[in-house]
Predict the 3D structure of the following.
Amino acid sequence: MFKTIDYIFFILTIIITILLYQFADREIARYFYNMPHNEIKEFFHFMTRFGKSEWYLIPSILLFWYFRKKQQTRYATMTLYLFMTNVVAGVGVWFIKVPFGRMRPEFYLKDNLYGFEWFEINHKLTSFPSGHTITAIST
């Protein structure tokens, strides 16, 4: 079960998240938006590709079918696991995205709009939690 230290860590995480959202989020967004085009920006553009689920879903399901046909159960199970973790995480994240409806940074950077629009399904209002991050973590 959970120990007291787990609860303390959980509460501290919530407090720090709220403080960062209130006092640092917009400044950080503005900093990276205004960053000149350089190697750091290129690196993050490259890393973003790893958060795209199609890189994992398509090969894993194709490999699953291949290994299943070849009766290599162990490999078929591994590739099915990779596929299912991405599917379950991807579907599950929408149960958080829709209620929270957080505006994407472009709203703030271009129109000075910031915050949450509760229970939205519009792509521009579903930036929390990050689908790329969920994909990377689930994989």
User: Anything to note?
Assistant: Residues 73-100 form the longest helix (28 residues). The radius of gyration is 19 Å. The helical segments are 4-23, 25-34, 39-48, 54-69, 73-100, 105-111, 131-138.
